[in-house]
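$ run holo --ligand "S-adenosyl-L-homocysteine" --emit tokens
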Amino acid sequence: MTTLDLAGAKQTPKKLNVVGRRPDELQLALIERCDVDPRNARMRASQIWRWIYNFGATEFEAMTDIGKELRSRLDEEFAIIRPTIIDRQVSRDGTRKYLLGFGPGIEVESVYIPDVGRAGALCVSSQVGCTLTCTFCHTGTQKLVRNLTAGEIVGQALAAKDDLGEWPSGKDNRSLSNIVFMGMGEPLFNLDSVRDAIDVLSDGDGVSISRRRTTVSTSGVVPEMTRLGNETNAMLAISLHATHDELRDVLVPINRKYPIAELLDACRTYPGVGNARRITFEYVMLKGVNDSDAEARDLVRLLKNIPAKINLIPFNPWPGAPYECSTWERIEAFAEIVNRAGYASPIRTPRGRDISAACGQLRSDSVKERASDRRKRELAAAAADAGR
Ligand code: SAH
Ligand code: SF4
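-- output --
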């Protein structure tokens, strides 16, 4: 596809993508690649930072408070890379779903949902596909292609802000106020990139989405949870979906490695957890599978000593899914029990279902390229380059 080739061409190996680099990395790159005087590196990095993350600049040429000579040097050494928007769909309810390309065969979906959080939330992907195979999740049917880099995670937010016309990044009156890592992939299997992306997106001189408005959802990668809290200070969401191990082993297979008791222990000790920083427990409502009154009571009992919010997610169907969504009466009865235990408004209204943008409906056609095919493609590209 030509759009993908273009994205790839822009990413010449010589040029460093500055999107997603932390300020210290950017300073070092300026010194090493552009001979910037180390005494000025900090100031230069913060100028570039503001242009990219506050004003949405896509070219160094636009950075008018930087001298012409340095600008052209920056242009030789660095690139400001956005994903290509391959497809964009808008739901009747205003939800926008993007299919984004990062290079040949590397595609993910991101979803902007208005009126969620303070103004609107962007649901970002952290991996192309997923290694896990939760049986109710469409992404789970797509094998892992690769982890996204921090630049590619941040790039999803930049692309959404372009589309929403949200430059400069105002602090008030914004449409994008929250980030949720609830797109494709398991964020705790790509924690370094997730952490760097949160560092960049939360910075007050740029996109400025605070850590309190950033939520990371995990299927329960217990050994990485403390590090997530310590290194990102983000809000935590847990994909619980079952109240006993026998069922959770089937729905969320990582449970066989880290069962419910261990997962909840890790929640109790999650850094910063307290009544002002509650953990969200997500519970997908599957007809006849996990939606009985007894399970609602078990759920409440299980979370008793944990500062928690409960999010009941009506199951969002996808082609070939082996489950159905619980009836509305069943969801309400379940919610009523949860409600009586003191959890407010526990049902998450499905958004963007008409464009398959709701929780668990995301998937791309990217497949992992075999090494031999990759070599063939690279050789063909090199031959085409040589012939130019
Ligand atoms: N991998 C992470 C984050 C992505 S999934 C995780 O599993 O937490 C975001 C949320 O959507 C998770 O709670 C996931 O369990 C839920 N989900 C997946 N498929 C769904 C579906 N078909 N309908 C409703 N929710 C779903
Ligand atoms: Fe992966 Fe999360 Fe889907 Fe499970 S629910 S398959 S962890 S994306």
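-- notes --
Residues 16-81 form a domain with the DNA polymerase; domain 1 fold (CATH 1.10.150.530).
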